[in-house]
């Protein structure tokens, strides 16, 4: 009998943003494989599990995906319950689909547990409502960095009129800026750059599409960070409500 693999979203960093289901799954796990960007504080929910760090910060120079696959399979075939902990949501730039498919092809069942993705948590923590009646009728989550090094169609994204939340964009600011301006966004379009969202080390830099690069350099923006681009960034409603709540 092969064991089971949980593919769990650990949220953006704040351990309180873990779901109850993630806590239950961690409690069942005998082996926990933890990715980069997962706050190790969440391991308090699996005190007796064997923990394997598979990210760059764990000392390995980014564990190859093939090795991670094989490791999951090996423990599952030993009948163990394996938890694979990923930052944010496992299905948002997190490869959970690939891993689930790979395991299924080898007869191992897996279950995905959602987590709060960095873009959502970062925006809220900075008082930004990603959709807002009369301002933005939608939100697009997009990565600036792909394995094949191709760029998203920035001009087309500009034309959607949705708030853009850009992941993995820190090293691509020039390209993002140019593409969105080419697509017709105004130079004055507000941008928030949010580093280490939801952690005590969170930092936020407000800028515009025009000044994006200069401001990011002055701020010394570092990964992990997300960019929120769109008129909702300039709206004060949620910020006022949040500061009011903080005072109360
Ligand atoms: N599955 C993750 C995303 C993994 S891709 C999720 O749903 O959040 C890694 C990228 O996510 C980083 O380059 C950065 O753009 C973003 N990211 C992850 N954690 C973050 C955090 N705490 N603050 C800001 N950005 C973060």
Please characterize this protein's 3D structure.
It is globular, with a radius of gyration of 19 Å. Helix content is 29%, strand content 21%. The termini are far apart. The protein is built from 8 helices and 10 strands. It has a 5-stranded parallel beta sheet, with helices on both faces. It folds into 2 domains: 4-113, Tetrapyrrole methylase, N-terminal domain (Cobalt-precorrin-4 Transmethylase, domain 1, 3-Layer(aba) Sandwich); 118-239, Methyltransferase, Cobalt-precorrin-4 Transmethylase, Domain 2. The protein is an alpha/beta fold and 248 residues long. S-adenosyl-L-homocysteine (SAH) binds next to helix 4, strand 8 and strand 10. S-adenosyl-L-homocysteine is lined by residues 12-13, 37, 86-89, 92-94, 117-118, 122, 167-168, 194-199, 223-226.
Using brief descriptors, characterize the structure shown:
uroporphyrinogen-III C-methyltransferase, binds S-adenosyl-L-homocysteine, 248 residues, porphyrin biosynthesis, alpha/beta, Cobalt-precorrin-4 Transmethylase, domain 1, 10 strands, S-adenosyl-L-methionine, methyltransferase, Methyltransferase, Cobalt-precorrin-4 Transmethylase, Domain 2, 5-stranded mixed β-sheet
Secondary-structure blueprint:
Blueprint: E1 4-9, H1 20-28, E2 31-34, E3 50-53, H2 65-77, E4 82-86, H3 96-104, E5 109-113, H4 118-125, E6 139-143, H5 154-158, E7 163-167, H6 173-182, E8 190-195, E9 203-208, H7 212-219, E10 225-229, H8 237-247
Parallel strand pairs: 1-4, 1-5, 2-3, 2-4, 6-7
Antiparallel strand pairs: 7-10, 8-9, 8-10
């Amino acid at each position: 009998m092969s064991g089971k693999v949980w593919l769990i979203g650990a949220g953006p960093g704040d351990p309180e943003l873990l779901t109850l289901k993630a806590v239950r799954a961690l409690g069942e796990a005998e082996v926990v494989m933890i990715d980069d960007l997962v706050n190790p504080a969440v391991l308090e929910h699996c005190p007796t599990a064997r923990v394997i760090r598979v990210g760059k910060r764990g000392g390995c120079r980014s564990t190859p995906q093939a090795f991670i696959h094989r490791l999951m399979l090996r423990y599952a075939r030993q009948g163990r319950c394996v938890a694979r902990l990923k930052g944010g949501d496992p299905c948002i730039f997190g490869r959970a689909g690939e891993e689930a498919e790979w395991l299924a092809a080898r007869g191992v069942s897996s279950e995905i547990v959602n987590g709060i993705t960095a873009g959502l948590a970062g925006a809220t923590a900075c008082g930004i409502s990603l959709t807002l009646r009369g301002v933005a009728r939608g939100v697009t989550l997009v990565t600036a960095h792909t394995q094949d090094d191709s760029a998203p169609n920035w001009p087309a994204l500009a034309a959607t009129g949705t708030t853009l939340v850009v992941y993995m964009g820190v090293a691509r600011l020039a390209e993002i800026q140019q593409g969105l301006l080419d697509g017709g966004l105004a130079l004055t379009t507000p941008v928030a750059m949010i580093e280490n969202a939801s952690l005590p080390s969170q930092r936020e830099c407000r800028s515009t599409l025009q000044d994006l690069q200069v401001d990011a350099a002055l701020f010394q923006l570092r990964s992990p960070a997300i960019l929120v681009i769109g008129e909702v960034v300039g709206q004060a409603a949620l910020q006022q409500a949040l500061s009011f709540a903080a005072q109360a």
